[in-house]
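Field log, afternoon session.

UNIT: design team B
ACTIVITY: writing a sequence onto a fixed backbone
BACKBONE:
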């Protein structure tokens, strides 16, 4: 693993830094979990696309600039360091797009990716169901064969961005009587199609980060099926590995937060509190460790490897790093951490970040699911039998 950046990558870093300095909005955009903020972020994504920064690692024909994975990491570092807006189309760019590159047809990529890069079409993830959260293989929504395509029926919940998004991607059971990972189909569908009803879910702050999606005989043409019918689970694992692994949570996010935490310590820290000082230093070190781990992943991918079950280790690491980093900041702020808005010295940045970080050990597969994957697929430990579970009372 070579950690020295070549001249091309250093020039790319400088170019990105200059563009962001000139273009990042002076005032933060409104939350993309509101209708107004959603459109503000959509416009920002279009501006990124015009400059070739919406999806830097994509081929140019789809709106990218064919940057290397290392250059993508550099872009992410600069993006977060500049305090640039959140990515409203992250479900599409960081989850659906890698799936299309691995399993989609040339026609699907040509049709979907350019509009995704500009966020002319913003994507929602439609996986979880009322009785199928982390255990997505127990889903019950169906896809029934019809002339020229499929009819979708069922309910999805906790669908990120669905309250204001244009389209969604999800898994459905395509073979009657099939169970668990068999007989599934991976499809894309229009959230404004006939038979689709979207019900926004209000969060405690009143914003709509999620929605329920009800489908009643929604027609999806064969052209919107990714991979082969019945093989949806294998396709979905590409999406899941990107969500848990490299794409969704790049090191740049945590490097920027760790640097801000160190700055907060220098401004407000009590030098006699050695325990808190050690926590600040530990957060900074762990953010750098995640950076090095990701560089190793990029090296492995560049040599022909893939994102396998190792992504579960990755997900466990960054989700807990995020929580503990924010907890350290709140402890440093003391009672002032409870202030929000203009009353807060930091505008409520740390408290809002902490509340979001708490969801990290849940979304994308809970800690328990990730630890099972690590135990079974990486460590080779046996699965617990149903008899043992019954004897233990679990």
């Amino acid at each position: 693993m070579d950690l020295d950046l070549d001249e091309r990558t250093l020039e790319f870093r400088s170019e990105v830094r200059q563009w962001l300095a000139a273009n990042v909005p002076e005032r933060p955009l409104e939350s993309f979990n509101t209708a107004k903020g959603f459109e503000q972020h959509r416009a920002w994504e279009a501006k990124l696309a015009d400059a070739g920064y919406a999806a830097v690692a994509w081929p140019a024909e789809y709106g990218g600039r064919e940057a290397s994975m290392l250059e993508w990491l550099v872009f992410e570092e600069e993006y977060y360091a500049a305090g640039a807006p959140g990515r409203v189309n992250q479900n599409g760019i960081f989850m659906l797009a890698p799936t299309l590159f691995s399993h989609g047809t040339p026609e699907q990529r040509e049709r979907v990716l350019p509009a995704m890069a500009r966020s002319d079409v913003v994507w929602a993830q439609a996986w979880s169901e009322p009785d199928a959260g982390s255990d997505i293989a127990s889903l019950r929504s169906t896809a029934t064969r019809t002339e020229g395509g499929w009819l979708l029926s069922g309910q999805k919940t906790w669908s990120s961005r669905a309250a204001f998004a244009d389209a969604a991607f999800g898994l459905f059971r395509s073979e009657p009587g099939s169970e668990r990972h068999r007989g599934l189909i991976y499809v894309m569908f229009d959230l404004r199609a006939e038979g689709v009803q979207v019900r926004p879910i209000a969060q405690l702050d009143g914003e709509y980060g999620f929605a329920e999606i009800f489908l009643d005989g929604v027609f999806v043409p064969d052209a919107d099926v990714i991979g082969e019918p019945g093989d949806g689970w294998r396709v979905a694992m590409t999406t899941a590995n990107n969500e848990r692994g490299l794409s969704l949570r790049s090191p740049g996010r945590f490097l920027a937060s760790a640097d801000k935490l160190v700055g907060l310590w220098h401004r407000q820290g009590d030098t006699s509190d050695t325990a808190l000082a050690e926590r600040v230093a530990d957060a900074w070190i762990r953010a750098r460790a995640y950076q090095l781990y990701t560089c190793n992943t990029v090296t492995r991918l560049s040599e022909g490897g893939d994102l396998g079950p190792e992504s579960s280790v990755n997900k466990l690491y960054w989700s807990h790093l995020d929580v503990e980093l924010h907890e350290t900041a709140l402890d440093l702020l003391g009672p002032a951490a409870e202030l929000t808005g203009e009353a807060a010295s930091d505008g409520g940045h740390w408290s809002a970040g902490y509340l979001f970080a708490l969801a990290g050990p849940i979304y994308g597969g809970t800690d328990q699911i990730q630890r099972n994957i690590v135990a079974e697929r990486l460590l080779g430990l046996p699965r617990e039998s149903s008899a043992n579970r019954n004897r233990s009372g679990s």
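LOG NOTE: Residues 24 and 83 are 8 Å apart (CA to CA).
NEXT ACTIVITY: expression trials, pending approval
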